[in-house]
Amino acid sequence: MKERIIQKYIEPLKRKKTGNVGIELELPIVHLKQQPVDFSIVHAITNQFVQTFHPILVHTDDNGDIANVEMKNGDIISFDCSYNTLEFSFAPESNMYTIKKRFETYYTWFQDQFKKQDHALTGMGINPHRALNHNVPIPTERYRMLYAYLQENSFPYPNYGFFACAAQVQLDAHIDDFLITLQTFHKIEPYLSVLFANSILDEYVLARDWFWEESMHGINPKNVGDFDVVPATMDEMVDYIASQSLYCVMRDGIYLYFDPIPFREYVQQKQIKTCDSKGKEVIIQPTLDDIAYLRTFKLDDLTYRGTIEHRSLCMQPISEVFGALAFFVGIETNKEALMDWQPSLSFSRAQVNKKGGVRSLNQDLLIKDCKHLYHVAYEGLCKRGYQEEKLLERIAFRFDTATSPALDILESSKSMEDFISIYQ
Fold first, then answer.
1. Could you tell me the pLDDT band of residue 85, with boundaries at 50, 70 and 90?
2. What distances in angstroms separate CA 173 from CA 13, 80, 84, 287, 361, one per listed residue?
3. Which helix (H) or strand (E) element contains residue 182?
4. Residue 61 in contact with residue 139, Cβ under 8 Å?
5. Would you list the DSSP string of 196-242?
6. What burial class does residue 350 get, using C-beta atoms within 10 Å of its C-beta: 0-12 exposed, 13-18 middle, 19+ buried?
7. Least buried of 48, 106, 162, 423, by fewest C-beta within 10 Å?
8. Which of the 8 DSSP states describes residue 270?
């Protein structure tokens, strides 16, 4: 078992770092007349995209509607969980401006088409019309299984995948310093919520963590959220991964789910009782090869690609999202500058994820720390030599005021419909 974990997660860390950046952006689709998103319009626009941009691969759902396409350059445009969310996944590039230019091409085209039909894309971490929309899974084997699985506990929003939207970045990691990366982001995660919260729901300004931690995905807390204690050695990292849980596998082309089981325990079972998406019981025999289905959702997650995926970021306003992503890139590049840094305040991410949490802190000390993090990231971006620090400059006001997009909404007299437009 240990050898398989090393093969999947540790061996890729021995490759030479390229400095490449991988970005995934999930954008809510809204109906501008405060009606449910019209899936027939979504499908028609997607068909038009294929005719206009000529992707090299087109994948359809079980009803024959286009669910995702792959471009010649490696970019993937897809719908995430439901047809209420459009996702752009970009092939890694060394220069963030290269990705930004491609995003602007896709985004401008889709936005123009949607607006002709009284729909729009916007930059929020929760679809603001979630209560109006048809929150149903894309009819594919994987999404039907996921929807069935997430309904197995009493969490009030088992369908959160249909309206939660993120901006995620994958950065090269290396065997020599990947643990330093994890330790650095562990230290600053509370500040990321202060600066970038953008998923208002119930008592939360950042509901994203709540979704994962309290749903079925969080049954094993090691699969989600932050580290309680970041592993200090490679062996500790391997042991940590062994303690993370599987919840699904595939057999004969069918996804099967089961109560989460830590991988080290899973491989010792002779057989396991599972269910398909229709509730039919299937008995399986675990194998080491099932490590392929170990899917985790930590805020900062070591992947099999030799990268660390940072997934704590809500989708941001369109004009700000590349600035927020640049912050992650800058911190990674200049992480040594934070090794001995001690924050002026002691607070948890959970504390500031809730309404009123940020304003309960000493604002002068909070802003002092935010400004320090800005300068560390800025210096890191300057070192990369692509002028990406100019992306960060566009959101300098966030660090100067310790105010997130979510707080802008809550502290404004403008309506949510106004912000749907403002955040486009």
1. very high
2. 6, 26, 33, 28, 34
3. helix 178-196
4. yes
5. H--B-BTTBSB-HHHHHHHSGGGSSGGGEE--SS---SHHHHHHHHH
6. middle
7. 48
8. S
